[in-house]
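I have a small job for you when you get a moment. Can you supply me with one protein entry, sequence and fold together? It will help me judge whether the discrete encoding reads sensibly. Write everything out right here, beneath this request:
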Amino acid sequence: MTLSSRERNSIIIGLIAVLLFLGLQYIAFPLIEQHKALNNQIEVKASILQQYRARLHMLSSLQEELAERQDHLEKTEHLLIEGLTPALGAARVQLILDALSNKQKGITIKNARVLDSESHGHYTKIAIRIALTAQTKILTEFLYDIEHQPVRLSVSELTIRVPNPKKPRNLRADIVIEALMKQISEKNGKPEQDPEIHPRSATA
């Protein structure tokens, strides 16, 4: 069977159309999609690179800020009570309070009780409740001395009563003194000397 020239042209055109379709479907279109995906990846990576560059420019200031905060933390930690256990930390606070009361004439600590400690990460809050008798001026100086020690102590509760209305200057006070303790491991811990006491003079 002999095909006419027109029929041969139609077949050739049909084959070309099929080849074009297959080329577009399996070669051109995938290449276009791949190109788009590649462009998107380039844009994302460029954005990430820009962020890294911005952070790199901030690195110097961040390092300075970190060093300042580290220095501040170290200075603050030097003011904390140190001890292997909360009981030892509370004992150190009691030593300070006893020394302060002994330096002040006319003040008597009737009793002292260690309250439950509270854990806060690497730190522990310890508290001691004391009951004492003293005159107004001496009590004021005692409270001043508590909050002006080389270690950081604070008065969290203060209750004052006047046992004898005829002598209003003679007071009975219930005080809760708190301190933060930086816990040190038994392996790295070293015995420390008792903190140096610097009470204010009773005549100041």
Q: What stands out?
A: Strands lie at 81-83, 108-114, 118-120, 123-135, 153-161, 170-183.
